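Subject: mismatched residue count in predicted assembly?

I count 663 residues in my input, but I want to confirm that the predicted structure covers every chain. Input:
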Amino acid sequence: MKLATLSKKAVIQALNNDGLRLKVGGFNVCLSSPVATVADHLLGLYGAFDVVDHTAFIDFYTSIAPPSKLRRFFRANVNFSFDGHIPFKPLPYKQASALFEWGLNWCIANHSHHYLVIHAAVVERNGQAFIFPGTPGSGKSTLCAALVSRGWRLLSDEMTLLSVADGWVYPIPRPISLKNRSLDVIRDFAPDVIMGPVIKNTAKGAIGHVRPPDDSVNLGEIPVQPAKLIFPSYLKGSKTELTPLSKSRALLKVAENCFNYNILGLQGFNSVGDLVDASDCYEFKYSNLEEAVALFTELAH
Amino acid sequence: MKPPQPPILCSVLIEPRLALNFNLHQWDLLIRQARSANLLVRLGYLFDSTSLSNQLPAQPLAHIKSAQAYADRFYISLQWEINCIQNALTAVNVPLVLLKGSAYFIAENKAAKGRLFSDVDILVPEDKLLEVEMALIKAGWMTNTLDPYDQKYYRQWMHEIPPLRHLKRQTSIDVHHNILPKTTRFCPDANQLLANSVKIPEQNIWVLAPEDRVLHSAAHLFHEGEFTQGLRDLSDLDLLLKEFSTQENFWASLLQRADELQQQIPLYYALRYSHHILQTPVPGHVLKASQQQSPNRLKTALIDALFLRALMPIHDSCDNRWTGLARWLLFVRSHWLKMPVYLMIPHLLRKAYRRATGKKQH
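Triage response: the counts match. Full output below for your records.
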């Protein structure tokens, strides 16, 4: 049953009682929250996600709630909690929905060492996964949103889950998080995308979330073989430039962008090695999204 | 005031095969309880050692595998850390005596399986403390506690110096000269612990004798004020007792050693609760012998009411309305045991004042 088939009232009721249970990629997530903006966030952006019933195994029990009733009115803020454990400091009340997304990132990154978790956006076309690792500001999410708006399948805009068992990319399609100027860039590039409200003054600046395409969500449990490993950098005014990158350099660059490379030790090294062997590796400079999308569409043929 | 139902986690620690009949909802609860008790990795080893792992459902197995991957990395770092400490102590010619988790690890005890912790604990003779501290500082560790009151408090009353942290690796080491604070009513003689310590074959590392390892674990748990890892510690005791009980004459020497080290009461609690909660196979006559130390019936009922709650995982599913009070009373009890009142009251007042005025706590 899709979340979109539930009434707003039913969603709010579930969030206020024992939680709304959603299938997010290969994970089941239970979220409870009395915060209205969290309900709006789910209703607006998670409509295509399946709601699972009470007999399902839940991977992550989460909640977004004010630390005390008083703090709802006085310097209002909210905590993220993972099964009763609060891993971060509270954030202002207005940032509740962003805190949910960050909290879920934290849950996945810290409890998924059966995957190599790469800080990378990943999209699919013609059965090939294109992986875009990137430090913040490299434009990986912008690039990802642009490709997805032109019909590419979204696997993840934040974390690439590479199975250590079979080397395939396991999707975790969720709303794409865009920051600051990227918000306008994507609005201009793809006026049809559905975007949640912009949250200002977060630690990362202004943040907005793009709704993942229904098709990507429906294929949320189907893994994809890695094919291209592309290190993007957005440079204002630059030409569109795709340069092949040696496997050895690519290996080091991927390792730097993993959340759990050092935890996986030898296994991590082997996984990165296999990934680099299986993929064509490039560096990519760009400033024009139309050219970027055209180039990658060509590359995916 | 009935104690809450025993958590599903305890049943599986006793009999791992039970989990084969679990539905996904029960698995869900088991993984949550195990994670909050810091026993998820141990649960995994238990399934591995009983060859059940390949029969588990994929979703809970993924959480266990993930936690095991983290643990594998932890053991590599731990071995490296032990090597570094050993090198530092060789310089001053003080033997390395490991305690608790790192001792179980180096002695390859079953209690090392799935035990994750943050500090390496070592025991050195009190007259060598300064030398050892200097040697560790020379090797890159430095004190974590700059507050003069805390420094004085540790050095004057505690059984350890303030924790040292390595500048580069950020790892932490607790240097002990005893296993309980000097101010504890029944404080053992540390020389007796050192005298009986045993050497790890082919390494220059020592650990406490098996009986002393059990008694240290018991003394630690049953003087404890915060039970964030209570069930994990009880499970350590369960595994140590099961492993050592195959040695000849183990139970008799355990009882005798408890007398020598004045740890009869912690041993009584350890046997009572590991038998009660985890069904540790303690022979009847041993339970009976240790019961000579039991307090009167009323006090026993009260202590049971407290420990049977506080030793459960800190998880919503294991709490009832009395759990919070039980934990608080045991916190008070731990201070009562560890310090005479004339020391405790000024200490607690000072801590409370500093908390109220927002000064940094250690």
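The first helix of chain B runs from residue 8 to 14. Marking this ticket as 'not a bug'.
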